[in-house]
Structure formats: structure tokens, C-alpha cells
Design a protein that fits this description.
This protein is mainly alpha-helical. It contains seven helices and no strands. The protein has helices spanning about 5-25, 30-55, 75-90, 95-120, 120-130, 155-160, 165-185. The chain is globular and about 55 Å long.
């Protein structure tokens, strides 16, 4: 079995296991300051994911607008920010674990998805790939020079269809949970 298929099978179950361990252990280490910093970073991730989900029409067209003009994988980058934010809230050393998790689990997943998208949109993707980084965003959006005009901005119905509101609710619940423990121990 290839690394990308193993990563695909492990991504969600391992993510839920790690989230459960985090919620059990994090209250011992979270402080008011670490929660504030971590919550801001995680909120940025929630917003990036929301923005991205309102631009992507999976398998129908190559998304290059909105956050896709900065990074080819804004949904994964947003997830990374969420995980880093909650890691910061508990203990900075967890940021290293988050980075390792993303390298081991998400890098093969992104490689598999890149091959799929390249197969669906070979010419457009080649140009897009040359101009937009895979993960960490470029400082300015790529204008899509030479690409077909999309004419598609953010779509709230797409955001709802992709269920990103669940990430926002999860964020609120996790921050409230950690804030409860901070208030209880100060």
C-alpha cells in the first residue's frame, strides 16, 4: 500500500484520536496568554478554510481564485493554522508534533490530490503550479495570467455545502472548553 493511501486511511481516525488526547491533556498546560495567542492563530485557520470552501467546486473546475491565488492547498493550510493555534494554546512543543503530523499525513495526501487535479486539468494546472506554492502562501495573490476567466467569487452556498460551518462550531467549542479550564485554575 502506498504512503498516500496509508495517509488517506489514517488522516481522520488519527486526527480524532489526537484531538481527544489534546482535550484531555491540554487543560493542564493552557494559560490565559497562551489561549489568547493560540485562539487568534486557530481563528485565522478557520477563516482561511471558510474562505477556501466558498471558492472550490471540487472536480468541476480548477480553483485559482480567493485563497487559491495564494496557495494551492488553502484548506490544508487552514487546518495547519488551526492545529498550530491549539498547539500554541497548550504548549509550544506541540507545534513540532503538529508539523510532524502534517509532513507524515498531509504531504502524501497533497501529492495524491495534485496528481488527480493535474490529470483533470493538465494545461491549466501546469501553469498554476508554476505560479502558486503548494502549501505556504505567497505574499501577493497570483493574477492567473493566461488562465481562463473564472468569474467566481466567494459563494456562501458552497461554504454551507462543504460543511465548513462545522469547523467554526468546533473552534468555538474548543476555545470555550479551554477558557473554562483557564478560568477554573486562575
Amino acid at each position: 500500500m502506498s504512503a498516500s493511501l496509508i495517509a488517506k486511511k489514517l488522516r481522520l481516525p488519527l486526527g480524532f484520536i489526537l484531538a481527544g488526547l489534546y482535550l484531555w491533556l491540554a487543560p493542564r498546560y493552557v494559560t490565559r496568554q497562551s489561549l489568547l495567542i493560540g485562539a487568534v492563530v486557530a481563528l485565522a485557520g478557520v477563516l482561511v478554510r471558510a474562505w477556501a470552501s466558498g471558492h472550490i467546486m471540487k472536480n468541476d473546475r480548477l480553483a485559482t481564485s480567493g485563497p487559491y491565488a495564494f496557495t494551492r492547498n488553502p484548506l490544508y493550510f487552514g487546518s495547519f493554522l488551526i492545529a498550530v493555534g491549539f498547539a500554541i494554546a497548550a504548549h509550544w512543543i506541540l507545534v513540532l508534533l503538529v508539523a510532524a503530523f502534517f509532513i507524515v499525513i498531509y504531504a502524501p495526501t497533497m501529492a495524491r490530490e495534485k496528481a488527480n487535479i493535474r490529470g483533470r486539468f493538465p494545461d491549466a494546472y501546469a501553469q498554476y503550479e508554476r505560479n502558486v506554492p503548494a502549501f505556504f502562501p505567497r505574499p501577493l495573490p497570483w493574477g492567473g495570467e493566461g488562465m481562463p476567466a473564472e468569474g467566481v467569487g466567494f459563494s456562501f452556498p458552497l461554504y454551507m455545502k462543504h460543511g465548513e460551518w462545522k469547523a467554526a462550531l468546533g473552534y468555538v467549542a474548543a476555545v470555550a472548553y479551554l477558557a473554562y479550564w483557564v478560568a477554573r485554575h486562575t
